[in-house]
Amino acid sequence: MESSAKTRKVILIIDDEPSILKLLNFILSSTYDLTIKTSGIEAIAWLEEGNDPDLIISDLMMPYFDGSLLIKNLKVSGLYRNTPVILLSGADDLAEKVDAMPFTVDSFLQKPFNPTALKASISELLTS
């Protein structure tokens, strides 16, 4: 590959809802390289293989290993401390949950989310 070729940013998406995954793939795949995982456990396994996404989008509420625990582990690990994170959730009290977290979340959106707002948030996080 030529050094002048622009490489696409990699986004790791973790969500257990097929409809959300389909929507995110539809909205983002033309601009970004997407890696889709359906659980926090799958995401951790992928990251442990040495993969390094430019941004992570995670559902907050998932079975077995939820988004909060996943992001806490990534931020504490040090390796992904500076990787921007966007949380998605259908929780009514999402802002309160994010404020109570012992780590920083770069952005969060309530489901159902506005695709334009999501794209704007991604763009802002990847250029800052």
TrEMBL record:
The name this protein goes by in its record: Two-component system response regulator
Entry keyword Phosphoprotein: yes
Modified residues (4-aspartylphosphate): 59
Gene Ontology biological process terms in this record: phosphorelay signal transduction system
Residue ranges annotated for the Response regulatory domain, each copy included: 10-126
Species, as recorded: Pedobacter quisquiliarum
Record key words, sorted: Phosphoprotein
CDD domains documented for this protein: REC
Stored PROSITE patterns: RESPONSE_REGULATORY
